[in-house]
Structure formats: C-alpha cells, structure tokens
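pipeline: protein-struct stage 2 | run 1193 | DUF305 domain-containing protein
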Amino acid sequence: MRRNHQGAAPRDRSDEGHSSPALNRSATDRTSHPTIIASADEGGALPARRKLTRPEEIELRIVPVLATLALLATPALAQQAGHQGMNHQGMDHSKMMQPTAANPYGPAEMDMHQKMMAAKGADAGETWIRKMIEHHRGAVAMSQIALRSSQNAEVRGEAQKAITSQNREIATLNAMLRKMGKPAQ
C-alpha cells in the first residue's frame, strides 16, 4: 500500500464524486502544481493536505497532454509554415538536379514536377486527370533513361514494361478527357 510523506495510508476518496482514480490522489502526490510549488519556493513547507479545486485538478491532467501534443505537432507545423506561399517554379533547382551516372533522372523529374504543377482543369476531376497524365509521362521519360543508362537486363525489362503500361494509362486518361468534352493532352 502506498503511504503519504507522514506514513499514513491515503484516504479513500471514491465517495467524493471523482470517477478517475488519478484525480483521487492526495495533495502530496500533486507536487507539480504551481500553487504547491510556490508554497515550497517561498520557504514554506508543503501543505500536509490541500484539496485542489476541480479546475486545478483538470488543469493538472490537461496541461501535460496539451504540452505533449504541441511538441508532437511542432515539426509538422514548422514544415508547413516554412513552405506557405513559396513559389517553387521560380527557384533554380538545376544544380541539385544535375544528372550523374548513378542518378541520371534529375532533369526528367524536374520536367515532370513542373508540368504536374502547371496542369489545371475546370474542376478537381479534370485537374487530377491532367496531373496524372504528366505523372505517367514522367514515368515514361525516366524509363527511357533507364533503358539508355542501365546494363542490367532485369531493370531494362521492367523499364520497357513500364513504358508500355504508362502509355496505356495516358491513352485511357486522354480518352476520359475527350469523353468529358475536354481536349486531350
């Protein structure tokens, strides 16, 4: 059995209307509360038993939860805030995207990204179709680079399959645009 600082067993507070056992702790278990800390900091001894008000009890439970949530959300909020209003189309990524023997895809990736960003339609459905067409065209371009750059027979085979399937997807999406009365891309 847990005892308080004076060696006495904690009293049963279940009849005080609190449903949570955590809220039924004695005041000596709540030494992190500002009122109790202030008493100790001012040279006074901790009160033997000080019954916290209901708002104080709620605060004791909610503040740590809110602090934890704030800490967890900080990286996502910082990343989102850092990119609000940024226009990536005016940025020069060419130095980052220079092709190398190990990664010859940079220019194709940038081209696909720019075309996807520019693709727009009259509604969300048309915009999605136009962005997906550019996405599939980017996959075709990257697969063509893989065919030119890789000596691995398995990679070359998959790249050829990707070109065939991505061109089929592009044709399907363009047919959807025409069915909607929109010009194909």
